[in-house]
Design a protein that fits this description.
Helix content is 40%, strand content 22%. It has twelve helices and 14 strands. It has 341 residues and is of the alpha+beta class. It starts with a helix and ends with a strand.
Length: 341
């Protein structure tokens, strides 16, 4: 990343920077934070980038920090730790205006915060490497590694630490930055079918639901202790391109995660009737010999992993359930460039 930012820093006269990033879909789930203010995950997560979904973020210098998502101003407190860390890393009192748009529903269980903070981190670094007011700040911005940017994005959303990388990514428990296990090209025949049950934003944010789970679910500690046990099997599934092996591990992961939520007081219930219908349809497809392996995050949407040759019959079956379907390949790393004045 430092070479890319350094290359982009060569052109003067930039009015802003633009970055496009894809959400990071957890195959093994991160659910729960360690205590403290650093937004560190309590459980490890293994994820894949979704090529079909994109967040586009434009950043320019401004008099105060301001973020708009799909035209709506965001709570400054949500972004304050992120921008404070940018200023610490660069040793500069810079302020930023950022505007993000998504080609998919935000805050609806499709990991928009992961792509949003990843794109914001890369765009800020790209802008500062070219157009910061002093050479020393430009040098510091150009030298930021992917690991540093991953740790920066994590302050806004732990899953954003993974979205700095394309392909398949691991974020261990309690660690500040993620690392790539394999690039997007590693598994070209893998497809992710995203079943959109509703485009409405969730009534309960992931952050709030995670904290409720940590504080009130009697199963939370057991979830934290056991979550990492699926990791070796899932990594082997990815590295050997063995979908059944990966699918079994990721299915156990998401069902156990939701088990902790159902036991909260009051319970956290994200599933809709269509969600359950999709889960049952995937189970039926597997009994018929088609590899449809589902997973879910904090929301009603269902994501199904399959191989390209089996996508048409799987899609045909699921399309009868009254949900929107988006096809995706494994996505690449975020890309960024300067926008000239």
């Amino acid at each position: 990343m430092s070479r890319e930012v350094a290359r982009l820093s060569e052109g003067p006269g930039a009015s802003g920077a633009l970055c496009r990033a894809s959400p990071s879909l957890a195959l093994l789930k991160y659910w729960g934070k360690r205590s403290g203010r650093h937004n560190l995950p309590a459980t490890p997560s293994l994820a894949v980038a979704l090529e079909a979904l994109k967040t586009t973020t434009r950043v320019r210098f401004a008099e105060r920090d301001e973020v708009l998502v799909d035209g709506r101003p965001q709570d400054p407190e949500r972004y304050a730790p992120f921008f404070a860390e940018v200023r610490r890393l660069l040793a500069a009192e810079l302020r930023f205006h950022a505007e993000s748009t998504n080609n998919f529903p935000a805050a609806a269980g499709l990991a928009s915060s992961s792509s949003g903070f990843a794109a914001l981190a890369v765009a800020c670094a790209t802008l500062c490497a070219s157009a910061a007011p002093t050479e020393s700040v430009r040098r510091r911005a150009a030298a930021l590694s992917l690991g540093r940017l991953s740790a920066l994005a994590r302050l806004g959303s732990a899953s954003a630490a993974r979205a700095l990388f394309g392909g398949f990514v691991l974020l261990p428990a309690g660690v500040r930055s993620a690392r790539q296990l394999a690039p997007a090209e590693h598994w070209p025949e893998l497809r992710i079918l995203i079943a959109v049950v509703t485009e409405k934003a969730k009534e309960l944010s992931s952050r709030t639901a995670m904290e409720r789970t940590r504080l009130t679910s009697p199963y939370f500690k057991s979830w934290v202790r056991s979550a990492g046990k699926e990791l070796p099997e899932a990594i082997e599934g990815v590295m050997h391109r063995d979908l059944e092996r990966l699918g079994l591990a990721m299915r156990r992961s998401y069902l156990r995660m939701f088990g902790t939520m159902l036991a909260c007081d009051p319970p956290v219930i994200y599933w809709a009737p269509e969600s359950l219908a999709l889960i049952r349809a995937c189970a039926e497809l597997r009994t018929e010999g088609l590899g449809a392996w589902e997973t879910m995050d904090a929301g009603p949407q269902v994501k199904i992993l399959c191989l390209a040759p089996e996508l048409p019959p799987i899609k045909e079956r699921l399309s009868g359930l009254g949900v929107g379907l988006i096809e995706s390949c494994v996505g690449p790393s975020p890309d960024s460039h300067l926008e000239e004045a």
